[in-house]
Amino acid sequence: NIGDDDDVRTEFRSLISSLPSDINVQGKKLCNYQGCWYYEKNLHAVLDYQKHFKPLDTDIILSSYPKSGTTWLKALTVALLHRSKDGIQSHPLTSDSPHGLVPFLEMNLYLKSSTPDLTKISSSPRLFSTHMPLHTLREPLKDSPCKIVYVSRNAKDVLVSLWHFRSKIEKKEAEISSLNSIVESFCKGVDNNGPVWDHVLSYWKGSLEDPKHVLFIRYEDLKEEPYAQVMRLADFLGCPFTQEEIHRGSVEKILNLCSLCNLSNLDINKTGVSWNNMDHSIYFRKGEVDDWKNHLTTDMANKIDMVIHEKFQGSGLKI
Ligand code: A3P
Question: Given the DSSP bridges, would you call strands 147-152 and 127-130 parallel, antiparallel or unpaired?
Answer without folding.
Answer: unpaired
